[in-house]
Design brief:
The protein has 86 residues and is of the alpha+beta class. The chain has one domain: Ribosomal protein S10 (Alpha-Beta Plaits), CATH 3.30.70.600. The protein contains four helices and four strands. A four-stranded antiparallel sheet has the order 2-3-1-4. Strand 2 and strand 3 form a beta hairpin. The longest helix is centred in the last third of the chain and has 10 residues. The termini are close together. 12% of the residues are buried. The model has no long low-confidence stretch (mean pLDDT 97).
Length: 86
């Protein structure tokens, strides 16, 4: 099961942290996440995600569902950086 480290910026950190959207969209795909925030109080946040396989994750991230979830959570799509554990 690949482990991903994902960084991005959001419009409102508290809204992003409290949103149920991650569980709604990732849960059915078998993706689990842990959330992190920048202690410097910036708009940067991060996730450690355990994904069943990269193909499933990549296909989802290219979907309209992912785009809608990111918009709902205030994610700035152009800031997303995904790292994969080797």
């Amino acid at each position: 099961m690949p482990t991903l480290l994902i960084f991005h910026e959001v419009d409102d950190v508290e809204h992003w942290l409290n949103s149920p959207k991650r569980e709604e969209v990732f849960g059915p795909l078998g993706i689990t996440v842990r959330t992190f925030v920048d202690p410097a109080k910036s708009q940067r946040v991060g996730l450690i995600a355990e994904v069943p396989d990269m193909e499933t994750f990549q296909r989802f991230m290219e979907s309209e569902t992912a785009a809608e979830a990111m918009k709902s959570d205030g994610v700035r799509p152009d800031t997303v950086l995904t790292l994969v554990e080797p």
